[in-house]
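QUALITY CONTROL LOG
STEP: pairwise intake check
CHECKER ROLE: data steward
CRITERIA: each record must contain a sequence immediately followed by its structure tokens, with no blank fields

ENTRY 1 OF 2
RESULT FIELD BELOW
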Amino acid sequence: MATRPKTKKIVEPSASAARETQTKFKHPWRIVPLQTAPRLGAAITPQLTYRNGPLLTNVEAFTVFWGKAWQDATNSAVAKQMNEFFDFILTSKLMDQLVEYSVDGKTIGHGTRTGSLTMTSSEPGSKVQDSAIQKMLQSAIAAGTLPAKSANALYFVFLPPGTQVEQGGSASCTDFCGYHDATRDNIFYATMPYPNCSGCEGGLSTLDALTSTSSHELCEAITDPVPGQGWYDDANGEIGDICAWKTKRLNGYTVQLEWSNAAEACV
């Protein structure tokens, strides 16, 4: 049985420290920044605090590969590899790390990949708004094309090469490489643009860039599914923001390090 970490004194950041954000984005952060984006060192040692929102205790990940381009042989091979990555990572040591962010009545454990869909009934186009992704998910869930939402359901939407997503006045490959969010009716989802630029490749292969970005958003969605209402640090953001583009290998996959309050480090 996992043990709970010792309770630590919560140190609230000063107003000046809170303004020293790592990226240009306003709180709450929920994005993977470009690898080339300048980031400031933390003004104080990061300390995630729990804000009483939901947690995905046994995440149920469903992958959605949106657009006919995913039927191309090269892209479909990437989709297959990403599904294999989720099958591994959801019961891996990366998930075991997150147990320290369990709270009374909400114990974080392993997850499962509940399925996958290559969606060809509609196309994202060359530019797609986050609002359109939310509408697509809501419509597909209502139609039964996607499984019903639940307290643990997390939909990973992968966009094809050549599609740029715009969210919050910013755009993929210009400002970010992926993000997670929740709709007003608490559909939890992550958006994964294809890494078409050097800032989102970060010197990695396409697959490694996607697994790194996906692991960042997976851990953030589990610990802070409604951004800013789960585990969060006002000065440094979410569990993955603090460790952006710091990676390690697990079973041959590239994953991002995540912040540990207990270790006071990216692990």
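ENTRY 2 OF 2
RESULT FIELD BELOW
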Amino acid sequence: MPKTFQLSLAPQKLWQAINPWSFYQQGAQFGFINIDLGQTSHPDVEQSILDEVGSYGKQLGRIGDVLEILLNHVDLGTLKPEERDAVDILRGQLAEVRKVKERTLPKTARRPKTDA
């Protein structure tokens, strides 16, 4: 028997399986948490640095600490206004990081202030 023409404006299945583990798994693995932060030409070296030296946050924190020390010992009076703004924004971010650390870390884990 020949099929007749049918027009359907709604899908045949009106249900969808919802799996909370598959909502957002682009580069992430649940369970033992692994997060892919991008491409690297030497992933084994990068993983060794993270394991043996410190996390990205720890590395950035130490760079920020040293940069703040250097800024305190350099004459910034010759900077252009936009350059001074960039320094001020960085100092503000470093101060915010310090506030978070003071609020969340025990006193023994905090690094000393670098204000001159």
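INTAKE CHECK: passed for both entries
DESCRIPTIVE NOTE, ENTRY 2: The CA atoms of residues 63 and 109 lie 17 Å apart.
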